[in-house]
Amino acid sequence: MTLPRAKYEGVNGVIDMGLLNVIRKLRLRQGLPMPEAEAQRVLGTAAPCTFNRSPESDPILWASEGGAAAMKLNGVLVGLEAQGDPQEGAATFSAPGTTVAVRLLGDEVDWRQNAELVFELDQGLSVGYRGFYGCEAG
Questions:
Q1: Quick one: which of 19, 59, 86, 93 is 20 to 30 A from 47 by CA?
Q2: What HEC string does the chain produce?
């Protein structure tokens, strides 16, 4: 079975598609794993910084050195802009209608996690994940 190719749109496209109620019911299921090829379709360049929920899964957030980032929200590819340098270990990304913040856990780091990602829609929905954030040397 072949899955349909994800579309590249903004967050408003997801909400306009009538998915807001579905997102609420699914507890904001935005954190879908995103292969590198999909991230490059959005970013147009390599993305050395990633956030994974587990080391075995594809990242749910990819960030480039230039300050752009990509994620997949309910099957839709979304481009984000960074506020700060993603390679410094903590960054905030945004697109109209949404904010994604990544912070390192500091003293809370253990073998299961080193960072937290919090995704928020301007309409009041919010969800956080713990996992792994890091940047490869480029």
A1: 19
A2: CCCCCCEECCHHHHHHHHHHHHHHHCCCCCCCCCCHHHHHHHHCCCCCEEEECCCCCCCCEEECCCCEEEEEECCEEEEEEEECCHHHCCEEEEECCEEEEEEECHHHCECCECEEEEEEECCCCEEEEEEEEEECCC
